[in-house]
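Anyone up for a design puzzle?
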């Protein structure tokens, strides 16, 4: 079995594509056409996303189509330079006659298991990067948004991908499991929950298939002492409501310095008090939302909306659980809805301890009037993105990369690093006519080599050998 798998995977890496090498002119022309087709089909996407997951028209336009079209334009303009050969400089003099270049080559056949919450933007950019990397692509659409993603893939085909370049599978769970068992697979891109991601990662690991995992987040909004509490409240609330709270980078905790807690509360309560009901993906997600709210209230949290939600369907109210105890499940829970908890902090150590609860870090937001204070925290936060004085929106930059951490996954997706991930480096070294003679050097040359090493270590005394 293993020799057969290895042979199939080797064939996909070397199999030529009619679209040429990574970021070839044909691929750049394809991505231009794809972007234009997406922009021209806005009414269809608005209708499909609204019918399948209740996404408002303005969100489909602003959070789905605009970033995807921008990414297409960016890849058409920048991908060739990013994936171009790179000469390795600063060659040691004793590698006389050698020149080496780093070349990006395709991975082979990339499998994408798509998610539903951003059915156009997430799948669209992942598809673009896999194709621009020179790969053949097989896509398993989400079972919750089959029509929306079918239209996206139809446009990708219409722009110039044939069945050999883009293989489309049924939008059901069984198709995802079957895809992971295929012998002809060189990389997997999965976006979804941490729980499902563990199973996908295990399946890939058993076959030594590399993967990119973009999983759940439990992200913090941090208010430093000098933050603008009104701006922070508005931005956090907007991030919470986006896509009905069903965003992996949505705020789940707001950590407020105790000196501005009252001012922040005065700003967030009017927003939450007028929150409309929102439809979640299914009834189980809504039940989970209400259970977490009720648990937080039982443990002493106060609802900014001033009212719980007694319904028993898939509609919920966006909630801010203020002064939430850290032992409440909502403080570090894996949930996917419009619920955020707040608590205060005094010291940097207390801030980081509360931020790190849950272990899922994708994007952290810091509010401060002094950007240098935010810079000092970046290395300690552990996530893949830090936004200063905003939430979520800056991620829409087409060159921006998401690199999750810990239980939120691994690998890079989107942006420059995401594009590089869809290729692999090959070192190509050339030896010219002027070269070091092959084989064992003569005694004179050996002495010269020894003197060269001694010269590099001059003035340094190594520690004694303790063996």
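Challenge accepted. My sequence:
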């Amino acid at each position: 079995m293993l020799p057969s798998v290895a042979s199939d995977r080797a064939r996909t890496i070397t199999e030529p594509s009619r679209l040429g090498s990574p970021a070839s002119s044909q691929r750049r022309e394809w991505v231009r056409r794809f972007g234009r087709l997406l922009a021209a089909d806005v009414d269809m996407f608005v209708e499909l996303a609204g019918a399948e997951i209740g996404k408002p028209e303005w969100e489909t336009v602003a959070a789905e189509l605009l970033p995807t079209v921008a990414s297409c334009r960016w890849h058409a303009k920048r991908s060739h330079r990013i994936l171009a050969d790179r000469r390795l400089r600063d060659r040691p003099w004793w590698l006389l006659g050698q020149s080496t270049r780093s070349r990006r080559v395709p991975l082979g056949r990339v499998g994408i298991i798509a998610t539903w919450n951003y059915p156009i933007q997430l799948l669209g950019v992942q598809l673009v990067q896999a194709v621009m990397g020179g790969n053949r692509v097989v896509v398993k659409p989400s079972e919750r948004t089959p029509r929306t993603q079918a239209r996206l893939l139809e446009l990708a085909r219409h722009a110039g991908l044939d069945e050999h370049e883009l293989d489309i599978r049924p939008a059901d769970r069984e198709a995802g499991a079957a895809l992971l068992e295929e012998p002809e697979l060189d990389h997997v891109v999965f976006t979804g929950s941490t729980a499902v991601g563990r199973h996908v990662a295990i399946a890939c690991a058993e076959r030594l298939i590399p993967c990119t995992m973009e999983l759940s987040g439990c992200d913090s909004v941090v208010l430093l002492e000098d933050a603008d509490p009104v701006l922070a409240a508005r931005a956090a609330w907007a991030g919470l409501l986006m896509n009905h709270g069903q965003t992996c980078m949505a705020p789940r905790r707001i950590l407020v310095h105790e000196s501005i807690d009252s001012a922040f509360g005065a700003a967030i309560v009017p927003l939450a008090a007028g929150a409309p009901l929102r439809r979640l993906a299914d009834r189980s997600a809504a039940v989970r939302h209400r259970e977490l709210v009720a648990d937080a209230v039982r443990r002493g949290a106060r609802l900014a909306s001033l009212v719980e939600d007694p319904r028993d369907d898939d509609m919920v109210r966006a909630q801010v659980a203020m002064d939430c105890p850290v032992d409440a499940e909502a403080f570090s829970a894996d949930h996917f809805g419009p619920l955020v908890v707040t608590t205060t902090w005094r010291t940097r150590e207390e801030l980081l301890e509360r931020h790190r609860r849950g272990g899922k870090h994708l994007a952290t937001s810091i509010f401060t009037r002094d950007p240098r204070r935010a810079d000092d925290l970046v290395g300690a936060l552990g996530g893949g993105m830090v936004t200063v004085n905003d939430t979520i929106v800056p991620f829409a930059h087409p060159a921006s990369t998401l690199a999750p951490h810990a239980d939120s996954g691994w690998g890079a997706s989107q942006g420059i690093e995401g594009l590089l991930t869809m290729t692999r480096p090959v070192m190509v070294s050339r030896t010219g006519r002027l070269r070091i003679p092959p084989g064992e050097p003569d005694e004179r040359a050996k002495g010269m080599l020894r003197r060269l090493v001694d010269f590099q270590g001059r003035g340094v005394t190594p520690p004694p050998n303790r063996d």
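A detail worth pointing out: The CA atoms of residues 100 and 429 lie 4 Å apart.
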